[in-house]
Amino acid sequence: MQQNIVEVMDLIYDYGERPAVNGLTFSLRKGEALALLGPNGAGKTTTVRLLNGLFAPTSGKISVFGLEPFRQGDDVRSKTGVLTETPALYERLTARQNLDFFGCLADMPSVERGKRAEELLAFFGLHDRASEPVGAYSKGMKQRLALARTLLHRPPLLFLDEPTSGLDPEAARQVHALIENIRKENGQSVVLCTHNLAEAERLCDRVGVINRGRLLALGTPDELRKQVMPGLWLQVDLWSPLPQQVWRSLEGNPSVLEIARSGELTLRLLVSEQAAIPVLVTELARLGGQLLAVRPQPISLEDVYFALQEKDRQENVAEVHHALE
Ligand code: ATP
Question: Residue 70 gets which letter from DSSP?
Fold first, then answer.
C-alpha cells in the first residue's frame, strides 16, 4: 500500500469570529497530486499555511512526513516547496541572484547552489535573461522563476497556490506544462490550490472541493461525477416543439433525472445511464417527437463543482435562518 505523507484530521483554524478552516480531513499519498478547489475565501491558503507550520491549528491534527508542522516547522519546510499566489521575489536582484539568495536561506552549499540555479534557469527557459533584474520580467517569467525558487532545495512535496493566477492563457499553458514535466521527472507530491477547474482536472489525480473551510467532496474527477451527479446529459435538438404527450412521458420517466429547456427547440435531459438513451429516443419518436439530433454530453467537473457549491449555499442559507429563529 502507498504511504500517506500528509494526514489531516478534523482540522479547524480560526482567525477571529468565523473558522477559516472548519473540520478538514484528508490525506495525500506519496507521488499524488491533490487539488483543493474552491472559491475566494474558501480556506485554501490557510490550509497551506497550517500544513507548513505557520500557524498552530485551533484544533485537529496535522502530520506532514510524520512531523507536526507547528512544532517542527523547519524540518517540515526543508521538505516542502511553497509557491505563493504572488511570486515572492526581489525585483532589484537578477534571477540568478534571487535563486542564490533563496538557496542561501535553504542552507545549500555555494557550489551546489550555483549548479542547481543554472539547471533550473535552463529548465524554465530563463537562462538567456538570468542576469536581468527581475523587475524587468513579464508576469509569466516571474511565475516561472518563482516555480524554480520553489524547487531549489529539491523538496518532495510542493504546495502550489494559484500557480497561474493573473497569467494570460499562453503563459498559463506554459506553467501547466512545466508542472507536468516536473512531476514526470521527479515524481513530487503536489497540493494545488485553485479555483480553475480545468487546471485541477489537468494537473491532479484527486480533487477536494472546499467552501467555507469545509470539504464538500473528495475524489478523482470520475468518482466525484458518480457521487454528485450520476448519469449524463443528453442534448436534444428538435425539428418542431414537442407535443404535450411527450412532455408528460419525459416527466414520468424514471431514467430522466432532470429536464432543462432552452427555447422551444432544444432541451437537455439528465439521464441516469447511457443504456437508457436508445429506449428513451425510441419512446420520444413513437409519441410524435421530431428529433433532429441527440448528443450525449458527459458530466463535466464544472457541473459537479457548481452542484456542490449550490448545495452548500442552500445549507448556509438554512443555517442562517435556523440561527435567526
Ligand atoms: P483565495 O482564493 O481568495 O486566495 P482562499 O481559499 O485561499 O481564498 P483563505 O485566504 O484561506 O481562502 O481565507 C479563508 C478565510 O479566512 C476568509 O474568510 C478570509 O477572509 C479569512 N482570512 C484569511 N487570512 C486572514 C487573516 N490574515 N486575518 C483574518 N482573516 C483572514
Answer: T
Cell of 183: 512531476
Asked if 271 and 253 count as a contact pair (C-beta separation under 8 A), the reply is no
For residue 237, list its beta bridge partners. 266, 293
Atom 18 of ligand 1 has which residue's CA nearest to it? Answer: 41
Q: Using CA atoms, how far apart are residues 287 and 307, in angstroms rounded to an integer?
A: 32
Grid-cell match 480531513, residue found: 25
* E-strand stretches of 120-201: 157-161, 189-194
Cα end-to-end distance, the chain, whole Å: 50
How many A from CA of 31 to the centre of ligand 1? 28
Task: Tell me the residue type at 307.
Answer: A
Q: 10 Å Cβ neighbour count for 314?
A: 10
What span, in angstroms and rounded, lies between the C-alpha atoms of 157 and 300? Answer: 29
Cell numbers found for residue 271? 439521464
- The letter for the amino acid at 275 is A
Of the pLDDT bands very low, low, confident and very high (cuts 50, 70, 90), residue 18 is: confident
Determine how β-strand 189-194 pairs with β-strand 33-37: parallel
Cell of 315: 445549507
CA–centroid distance, residue 170 to ligand 1 (Å): 28
- Closest ligand 1 atom, CA of 43? 11
pLDDT grade for 61, boundaries at 50, 70 and 90: very high
Pocket of ligand 1, candidates 11, 22, 46: which has the most ligand atoms within 8 Å of its Cβ, to mutate? Answer: 46
Task: Work out whether the CA dihedral 180, 51, 88, 117 comes out positive or negative.
Answer: negative
| pTM, rounded to two decimals | 0.85
Half-sphere exposure of 44 (CA within 13 A, CB side): 27
CA atoms within 13 A on the CB side of 25: 4
User: Residues with Cβ < 8 Å from 205, sequence gap 6 or more?
Assistant: 32, 33, 34, 220
Residue 29: helix, strand or coil by DSSP? Answer: strand
In the predicted structure, residue 1 carries a pLDDT above the cut 60 = no
